[in-house]
């Protein structure tokens, strides 16, 4: 470029490297200045805009990250709520099953005279199941109420089952303490009640059951209990007496050998003595007695 200052003008001459003619442009200096200002202004504006866009971009990016973070957390919370709803539902099912089991146990046991009174006293009907959590909308208050209701039903069920177990334990104890087995297997030679005396022509009341068995055969306690007497009794010979509680006692007489001591606890089926013919007896046999509240009862009512 060739510049030629001439007063307030400059001339630019353009000489092509071919045979084409040269040409020149003349412009005023003030125009050049103006153009410089415009260029500088444009540069400043561009720089400012770049800074502005950069900052905006950064802010937008940060806000976007924040939003996606929040969305992730919300999703996690939603997942948790669904999990709790599912858990509540399955807990409710289990509580319902427990209540049904409790009800059928009571139904099965209701005809047991030993249990009836105990079961009737405290039974409360299973409560109505609470409605399931609604899928639409998260009702925290309702969810809490449901959980509290489940907790209450579980507690009630725990009490019911404890009561059932206590009643069954009492029944089992009573069953164990009720004579129910044969003290010895053998032929019944004399039943309970009035009979002709084997020692004369008179009639007498026979207060037990005579069971014939070979001398020395083992005699079993017919129920759990505590030995209250082990010794010789006039007429009955060597005798063991056991108290079973609930006013029930058993006695085993005419034995040849006593294998327990007074005060000793025995279990149903324990061997307590051996068959003999001590006392007023005509041969080896066991005289077996059952007394309820001190009165002799027919032992045959207490044999399986
Ligand atoms: Zn007898």
Automatic annotation (TrEMBL):
Keyword S-adenosyl-L-methionine attached: no
Pfam family, one: Peptidase_M23
Residues of the M23ase beta-sheet core domain: 205-299
Gene3D superfamilies registered for this protein in UniProt: Glucose Permease (Domain IIA)
Stretches that traverse the bilayer: 34-55
Residue ranges of coiled coil: 57-111, 140-178
Domain of life: Bacteria
InterPro entries per the UniProt record, alphabetical: Cell_wall_metabolism_enzyme (IPR050570), Dup_hybrid_motif (IPR011055), M23ase_b-sheet_dom (IPR016047)
Any GO molecular function: metalloendopeptidase activity
Region (Disordered): 114-138
Presence of the UniProt keyword Nucleotidyltransferase in the record: no
UniProt keywords, alphabetically: Coiled coil, Membrane, Transmembrane, Transmembrane helix
Record-given protein name: Peptidase M23
